[in-house]
């Protein structure tokens, strides 16, 4: 079974590409579920078909699902939400604000993602295609297992056993209400489910993340950042979809400059995600709506290839700490030997080895450090970082 996640900056074409991919999978004979975590119900707009918050049949082998994040929050978080509201209210926070505060930012998206695992476990589908929220939101979620761990330790800082024994006294002594067993149970259950979900998402045999982008400056920057963090957290990206590329046959003078800049940015895309295959999709004459348009898009992206393939399988980047130094290890297969040049530009690192150029965003831990040297061994470039 495969889980294919499509993410990228707002408006680049995530929903269209997810819908097109799902359609292609279904037409190849895979039982396919396509789901969206976007409350704007955009999958239904792409297919031009109604899609409910339960798997809705769309065509042969294809089901669609628009998750209702508020329902998910009610089902998964209600007890904690009630407790937190009471807790905030007891501290003098206005009722409505207290209720709002009891839902953490990104939580709607988190519960939506938990659905992936639920359907994964049911084994009713061969492929699950997920139309994810824009990169920023997706990235925040990756912290969630850690964050819930934090919650369990800090917010519910008193050990559970202890709570039981002191509860009798507290109501009179403290003005802070203590969490009841149901609250602990909910948080613990959630912690377990999020950790399990992370295991599914981080297993490259199951999950591939695909970055959808347009050949434009801001979009590429954000996607590069996403790529670094996805790698860092152990998620495997296996393809880039460069969408809305002006086709050759557009010769109108009006678009000449757009075409030239797209060309430049496509080269930058190659330099940024070099080891991943880059699938280009042209800007169509009109919006991508309906089965026929989606089928056309899928064929333009994948041609004869099967979207469930793993298009790349190595973890291209990792950071290890040896002694006081951090080492950034980059997988650069097929790289010829040559002089290694490193150039730092803000939080970005530009690497040249022979004729190969790589451009990547450094994660926070490395951004404060200086590259001190580099070596290339067995197709892996190792860059040593230390304090300036
Ligand atoms: N290659 C293309 N050619 C023409 N129109 C396109 C193409 N790809 C997407 N579109 C159109 O661009 C608009 C935005 O696409 P889409 O909704 O798929 O993006 P998104 O990344 O999901 O956006 P959001 O971040 O808002 O969810 C839609 O109207 C869609 O039909
Ligand atoms: Mg969308």
Question: How would you characterize this protein structure?
Answer:
With 388 residues, this protein is α/β, with parallel strands linked by helices. It folds into two domains: 313 residues, Rossmann fold (3-Layer(aba) Sandwich), CATH 3.40.50; 70 residues, Immunoglobulin-like (Sandwich). The strands form three sheets. An eight-stranded mixed β-sheet has the order 3-4-2-5-1-6-7-8, with helices on both faces. A four-stranded antiparallel β-sheet has the order 9-10-15-14. It is globular and about 65 Å long. The two termini are 47 Å apart. The relative contact order is 0.13. Magnesium ion binds next to helix 1.
List keywords for this structure.
2 domains; Immunoglobulin-like; binds adenosine-5'-triphosphate; 388 residues; single chain; Rossmann fold; eight-stranded mixed sheet; 15 strands; binds magnesium ion; alpha/beta; four-stranded antiparallel sheet
> What is the CATH fold-level name of the largest domain?
Rossmann fold
The total domain count is 2
**Mean pLDDT over all positions:** 84
Counting helices, strands and paired strands, the structural category is alpha/beta
Heterogens: adenosine-5'-triphosphate, magnesium ion
CATH superfamily of the largest domain: P-loop containing nucleotide triphosphate hydrolases
Q: Please write the CATH class name of the largest domain.
A: Alpha Beta
CATH architecture of the largest domain: 3-Layer(aba) Sandwich
Strand order of the largest sheet: 3-4-2-5-1-6-7-8
H/E series: EHEHEEHHHEHHHHEHEHEHEEEEEHEE
Number of strands: 15
Distance between the termini: 47 Å
What is the rounded Rg?
24 Å
Helix content class: 40-55%
Question: Strand content of the residues, in percent?
Answer: 15-25%
Q: What is the assembly state of the chains in this entry?
A: single chain
> Per the principal axes of the C-alpha atoms, what is the gross shape?
globular
